[in-house]
Amino acid sequence: MNDSQHLSSQFDEDLTRLRTTVLQMGGLVETQVSSAIEAYGTGEVSSVKHIVDTDRKVNDLELAIDDDCAHLIAKRQPAASDLRLVFGISKIVTDLERAGDEAKKIAKGVRRIYEAGQMPSQYGIGVRHIAEAALGMLRQALDAFARLDTELAVKVIQADANVDTEFKSIMRQLITHMMEDPRTITTSIDIIWIARAVERIGDHAKNVAEHVVYIVEGRDIRHPAKESKA
Amino acid sequence: MQIHDNPALKAEARNLNFYYGEAKALKGINMPIYDKKVTALIGPSGCGKSTYLRSFNRMHDLYPGNRYEGEIRFFPDNTNLLSPEVDPIEVRMRVGMVFQKPNPFPKSIFENVAYGLRVRGENNKRVLDDKVESALRGAAIWEEVKDRLNELASNLSGGQQQRLCIARALATDPELLLFDEPTSALDPIATAAIEELVHELKKRVTILIVTHNMQQAARVSDYTAYMFLGEMIEFGKTDEIFIKPKDKRTEDYITGRMG
Description:
The complex is a heterodimer. By secondary structure, chain A is mainly alpha-helical. Chain A contains seven helices and no strands. In chain A, helix 1 (about 10-40) packs antiparallel against helix 2 (about 45-75), helix 1 (about 10-40) packs parallel to helix 3 (about 80-115) and helix 4 (about 125-145) packs antiparallel against helix 5 (about 150-180). The model of chain A has no long low-confidence stretch (mean pLDDT about 90). Chain B has a six-stranded mixed β-sheet, with helices on both faces. Chain B has a four-stranded antiparallel β-sheet with strand order 2-1-4-5, covered by helices on one side. In chain B, helix 3 packs across helix 4, helix 3 (about 110-120) packs parallel to helix 6 (about 160-170) and helix 6 (about 160-170) packs parallel to helix 7. By secondary structure, chain B is of the alpha/beta class. The longest helix of chain B is centred in the middle third of the chain and has 14 residues, at about 125-140. At the A-B interface, helix 3 of A face helix 8 and helix 10 of B.
């Protein structure tokens, strides 16, 4: 990444502000996810409303950042690392916004489970564990973006496989539960939705990390399986 | 500088040095020019890109004290354009040039385009008519001037004059066209017309263009070379140079970071 200054200090300021706003948005999404996990464990249904409210702010930031990107492209015609940064940011905010949506889904699922008088802990399922892993990935992906650190980004990308594996294992356990006792189906399905949302958060964190690699190195590392086949 | 699936070479600079008297303006340039492709030369003022461009049609021969070293090989015949045995007039028949400011001769539109052919000794009216029309069509200006071929070229607008100059350069069927900032004196509409024309022209002729407008280089060229202080810093596919240049100096220049 190029840390020399532009001839136009205004351009530097625009880019800095853009990056700061992305991190601000990332911070909000991180809070949404961690509150949702918290609510899952404790049954603090009151925080659900807060998570949903935060989602509106996240959506607004997504629109504002994309708008800033469009203006920056129109005004500055960024090239090379600047272009990759602006382009990468526009993609990162899409993934962040979706991760926020998934947090909202978790929160709503938690509310349904507790309002039905159920406790997810009764099911002894490792959702909390993968949720912490996905949250960790999201944090690291944001750190990787803040510091433009590709090593960290690569770690995030590698971590996603574990989350995917754990998700499959949770699915198997819940299917067993449902077969053993059909009364658990409603709650089991809610937990599946929650686990699925967690798994998607991991995917979005991985995407953010891939965008970071693109921004820094100009390598597009999405869809590697396709490339190796070719 | 490994580039695969490259088209045929039209020309190649090999260890090209150039001196204005004592001052060394080009330092060991090695660069391919690919056939029927557009190659853009970019770099800050004084980097040697115009000097380099002008070497291709021996413009520097007009001034004493200028000196070339190295070669510019021209293909398919593998002629060294810089060889003293090669007649500069013959070089300029094969390598046409369009300048920054339109510079039509103080003659009629027709005579401007016919000029190079007449120099070559062509006086047959029918041949001249045909070639002039074809050159004007090639330069996308025929429809605008076909009913006023005998008017003075200076009556045309700036953008039209520039296209007339392109027609004049095309009339002798050059193999390589040199453009030295061809649109810097033109408005955006005339600029777009020239860029469109460059896109059409590369079907039949190889183009080397110097431009200060980075977006223009990105739009019109297939290959881009970045020059700095008389050196070729980086040469590559335009798509790669503008997304992911290899050299930090190129990156700094195209992102506007150079002091």
